[in-house]
Design goal:
The protein is globular and about 80 Å long. The relative contact order is 0.12. Strand 11 (402-408), helix 15 (414-430) and strand 12 (433-437) form a beta-alpha-beta unit. The strands form three sheets. Strands 9-16-15-14-10-11-12-17 form an eight-stranded mixed sheet, with helices on both faces. A seven-stranded mixed sheet has the order 1-8-6-5-2-3-4, sandwiched between helices. With 525 residues, it is α/β, with parallel strands linked by helices. It has helices spanning 4-22, 24-66, 72-84, 86-98, 103-116, 130-137, 139-150, 168-180, 197-211, 224-227, 233-238, 307-318, 360-371, 387-398, 414-430, 463-468, 481-494, 501-505, 509-520; strands at residues 160-165, 185-190, 215-221, 243-247, 266-269, 273-277, 294-296, 299-304, 346-352, 375-379, 402-408, 433-437, 440-442, 446-449, 453-457, 471-477, 496-498. Helix 3 (72-84) crosses helix 4 (86-98) and helix 7 (139-150) packs antiparallel against helix 13. It has three domains: 4-98, no CATH class; 102-141 and 155-343, 2-Layer Sandwich (Endonuclease, Chain A), CATH 3.30.870.10; 360-524, 2-Layer Sandwich (Endonuclease, Chain A).
Amino acid sequence: MSSPVITDNKTKIKRGVISVVTGRTFLVTLLLAAQLVLLIVGFERLGDYIHLGSAVASALMIIYVVNTPSDPTVKLTWCFVIAIVPVVGIPLYFFIKLDLGHRSVQRAISRCAAETMPYFDLHPAPEEDNIVELAKTDPDGAQAARYLRDRAGFPAYTGSSVKYFPVGELKFAALTEELEKAEHFIFMEYFIVSPGRMWDTLLEILARKAREGVEVRFMYDGTCAFSSIPYSYPRELEAMGIKCKSFAPVRPFVSTHYNNRDHRKIAVIDGKVAFTGGVNLADEYINEKLRFGHWKDTAIMVKGEAVRSFTLLFLQMWNADERVGGCHYERYLPAPEEIRKDTDGVVVPYGDSPMDDEQVGELTYLHLINTARDYVYIMSPYLILDAEAMTALTFAAKRGVDVRLILPHIPDKKYAFWLAKSHYPQLVAAGVKIYEYTPGFIHAKVVLADGVRAVVGTVNFDYRSFYHHFECAALLCGCSAIEDIRADFEETLAKSHRVTREDIAHEKLHVKFFGMLLKIVAPLM
């Protein structure tokens, strides 16, 4: 006679087996296995037809891609992917090109740009046209300013002053000082924010100012939730009285929108002072924390009329998910008589959006390179070039322009470092002088041409900045800060090692191999 305990155990086991067999997980697993078997059998029986169909589809897609109006390097990458793995490459191409995931975002950004357009003075009277006056002393600078006004919608200002910061520590000190003076509003938009001395100091000021009645808005890119701050961070700041948003927070659905990050760095105080540049809100940017040796970064502070464009740039992004007509823009734009005017050259703040077909950031860089007569100096953390940028740099060197690039010696991303080095042979052969900043990592984004024109902002020399990210910068023409930029470049150059042909020839084999390999898919990275 069976023991009651044994009977109970058998019953439990039986019920457990029945539960597993009839459960959702088992059924799903069984169906997936059945589909896999059918696919294997199908490939075995229809293999010839599938291979033929795949080859025909690949050939037709390559013909289509070659005839699209895009960068030749991008076309080459897609042709390679489609030819090697058509089953993945063809759907991926259409998924990215159709941009199904961010159509609503694109409409919202376009709406906000249209809302702010009346607040930009894009059609001044002839006697007040700053670009006409600039053309008398700097025709090439005037052409760049005219492009930014007529094609991108950003006016040129003369009633402004610019201060250049050669390291993040100085920008941090100046930003702290200006935030303490805020009386009406503070707008901040950054790519990275991470707790530490820098952010904790700024956050204390922002919370205190909010308690005093100052309107404080803070916006950061949603990728921060992966590395530095919790997903619920906006609610934590809201509890302090700070209006906070995370741009494109990652949610559990697939979207091309995640490919377009908010890489801008903007701070605006009372519509009278603005900051931009490469410096984010984390301790490595002020060398409070060492990650890749000394962190070399740059920024500018703008005062006067040009702050208007930075204010509107921030509000465009902030209002993208707000209701239509929900912002009274004029309340954040001080009257002309309230702004101190310093005539210190021409300043053109501008933004670049991946939601249109205009590569504003890259084209502005290319104009400075193509019109340089004596020299063009560049600092960038990354060097992942498309065909246009490579041609501009090499041709400038070949026509006698002194082209110098300062890049990191200690990289933050090895794959980006290897990709940069894959460009070295062609650049050096053309006469471009490449330097690596030996104390550590360069994060600055600066282009200086002939000592009279410069760009300082957030735009890297890579595909992500040129094609995929939201960016911002300022074109400076004839500003006194340009001399400070030149002096900083010379000082940084003295701490850098010039890359020679011998260095390139003796580069490690794995660096050369992976650089060449990654170059094929660089536009997709």
